[in-house]
Q: What sequence folds into this?
């Protein structure tokens, strides 16, 4: 082995023009950029629902209560959470690209079902498929980017990935709000989804390349932490052991899993109840669309900074600060009324989420061995996206019994509590440069 100044690892491999597999953002920039674009399309599929579907439930299908109206998020969350878990195993068994392509195939009927839905049951079916698709496509783009960049820039990679996805969520939510204001809630807002699904499937099938060899290369050069903390997490773990370590036993992995669940719990609340709160205050559909877009826009764009910042400052305290900022923002939304005050709170909520989202994923990549990292990411995303279902159920029940603003207060308290759990239980997972494999190694 010899060091090279390009900060990459390479070895001979089939499947690319040079015959080499290399780790590093610069070395894999074309594929990395392509995957950023693909994940933006994944986010757009989710964004087509953020403004319009809650209003469909209330204004078109006349659903009788908050709990009933949030059933689409409940089904989406359960489907995505379960698919995340299996997607990790499928990626390790069959490769990343086949799972990505299959996820896009599942996405194709979603906008069509939303356009043609004669009853709320069709909307539920669309969200079942959307959850399965998102679990396969978003999970795969996460793992593929981690594969490509190697250990030194995981935070940056996750920041770029999540920024693309949630910026697209925001842009699509804003666009569908204006389209719905001009043309109605159906069918025009969902034409965007048809275009996203077609383009995503085409790019994933024809242009995206497999990245599993990159993970194998990193595993071959993997260096244990100097403090010995991960010595028990050797490369050969069963699926049950990966689930146990990620969910309960390993302090950093389990702390990240519970924080991810609570983060998406409050996102499920924002998705399902915020448009209803804003509509009850007399805001137009266009203004509701602005507020629905503002939170994920700040969330998405903020990750361009926070992901890379966690590579410099560490993961733990950025996660703690982000969770506490989210709790404050939710409390403000519950306490005030008015477009501009809600807009300020949406910015704060997006900033807090931007601090948390890529950093949690990067912490999973820090701890999990490359040999079972895809499965660990799947388990983490099982818990994280299960938060959609928990949030929909909890927010709906509390809103129906105690009022919609009380539901926001309850979720604010849970978010603050989750941040305290991270502060107490989690250790710092990212150390530079002594505890990671030197990326200058070259294997010929």
A:
């Amino acid at each position: 082995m010899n060091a090279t100044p390009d900060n990459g690892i390479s070895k001979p491999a089939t499947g690319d023009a040079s015959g080499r597999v290399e780790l590093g953002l610069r070395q894999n920039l074309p594929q990395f950029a392509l995957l950023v674009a693909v994940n933006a399309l994944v986010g757009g599929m989710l964004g087509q629902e953020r403004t319009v579907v809650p209003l469909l439930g209330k204004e078109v299908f006349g659903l009788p209560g908050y709990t009933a109206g949030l059933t689409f998020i409940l089904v989406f969350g359960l489907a995505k959470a379960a698919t995340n878990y299996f997607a990790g195993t499928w990626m390790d068994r069959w490769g990343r690209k086949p799972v990505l392509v299959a996820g896009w195939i599942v996405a194709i009927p979603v906008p069509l079902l939303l356009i043609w839905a004669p009853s709320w049951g069709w909307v539920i079916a669309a969200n079942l498929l959307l959850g399965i698709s998102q679990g396969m496509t978003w999970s795969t783009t996460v793992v593929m980017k981690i594969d490509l960049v190697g250990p030194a820039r995981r935070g940056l990679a996750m920041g770029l990935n999540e920024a693309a996805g949630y910026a697209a969520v925001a842009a699509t939510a804003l666009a569908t709000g204006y389209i719905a204001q001009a043309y109605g809630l159906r069918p025009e807002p969902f034409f965007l989804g048809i275009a996203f699904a077609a383009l995503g499937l085409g790019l994933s099938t024809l242009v995206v390349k497999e990245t599993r060899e990159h993970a194998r290369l990193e595993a071959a050069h993997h260096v244990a932490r100097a403090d010995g903390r991960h010595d028990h997490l050797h490369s050969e773990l069963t699926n049950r052991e990966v689930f146990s370590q990620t969910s309960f036993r390993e302090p950093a992995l389990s702390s990240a899993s519970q924080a991810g669940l609570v983060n998406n719990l409050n996102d499920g609340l924002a998705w399902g109840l915020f448009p209803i709160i804003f509509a009850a205050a007399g805001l137009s559909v266009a203004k509701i669309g602005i507020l629905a877009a503002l939170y994920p826009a700040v969330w998405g764009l903020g990750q361009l900074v926070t992901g890379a910042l966690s590579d410099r400052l560490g993961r733990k305290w950025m996660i703690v600060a982000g969770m506490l900022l989210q709790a404050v923002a939710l409390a403000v939304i519950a306490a005030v009324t008015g477009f501009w005050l809600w807009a300020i709170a949406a910015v704060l909520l997006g900033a807090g989420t931007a601090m948390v989202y890529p950093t949690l994923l990067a912490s999973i990549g820090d701890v999990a061995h490359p040999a079972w990292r895809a499965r660990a990411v799947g388990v983490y995303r099982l818990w994280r996206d299960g938060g959609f279902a928990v949030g929909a159920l909890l927010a709906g029940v509390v809103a129906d019994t105690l009022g919609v603003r009380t539901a926001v207060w309850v979720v604010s308290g849970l978010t603050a509590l989750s941040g305290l759990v991270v502060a107490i239980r989690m250790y710092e997972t990212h150390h530079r440069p002594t505890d990671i494999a030197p990326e200058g190694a070259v294997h010929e």
The radius of gyration is 21 Å.
